Amino acid sequence: PKDAVKALKKKLSKNCNHKEIRLTLSLLDMCIENCGPRFQSLVVKKDFCKDKLVKLLNPRYNLPIDMQEKILTFIMTWARGFQGTVDVSEVKEVYIELLKKGVEFPSSDTSRGGPKTSSQPSTKSSPPSANPAKRSLLPLPTGPTLLLTPEQIGKLYSELDMAKMNVRVMSSILKENVPGSENPDDMNLLQKLYKTCRMMQERIMELLVTVENEDVIVELIQVNEDLNNVLLGHER
């Protein structure tokens, strides 16, 4: 695995040939799918995922959008972890750094290709958090980092459950309304949900760079991805 990663690094280092970069990214994708933890544990280190992959997002390389999205998808997917004992702490730091800089990640494949969620009439009722007034998930810490107490974690998870419900309702509305023949009531609720979800995402991104609890960070990343996917779906 070390030799393979070394070869990939060499191909990606200071390379402005888009065709070669594209082929290397495809090869990396296949290796991730077919190689085990020994290979995966090497590519999630900062000296690869940040110094080689993320560096290619620099404007001087002028990568096509689809290649930029592929790199961002790698970072986002790896940050969620692999099966087994692969330590993804370094790539997770890179992912959070990019979120903090305002980088917009592409929708995940699971969101686009996953099974459709069946909706029930009661789902359309306006959820409590559909109010456009800003909701605070948790007060911002006064220091640079925050270790949440069990009570704070419980409150935060309740708010995240509300965010998940908003995502489900918003996804349902987007699937059921065909452009040109939208239901006015649905569109009104959709706009409220959009504003609420956008504010929730902003708060989650703030928390991602302040909280220290590992389990909480994992949950925040997942909810942020769900919010990002549904918000992108609405903006399209």
UniProtKB/TrEMBL annotation:
Domain (GAT) ranges: 151-236
Domain named VHS: which ranges?
A: 1-106
Return the SMART domains for the record. VHS
- Residue ranges annotated as transmembrane are none
Identify the keywords attached in UniProt to this record, alphabetized: Protein transport, Transport
For this UniProt entry, the molecular function terms from Gene Ontology, in alphabetical order, are: clathrin binding; phosphatidylinositol binding; ubiquitin binding
What is the protein's given name?
TM1L1 protein
| Species, as recorded | Mesembrinibis cayennensis
Organism lineage: Eukaryota, Metazoa, Chordata, Craniata, Vertebrata
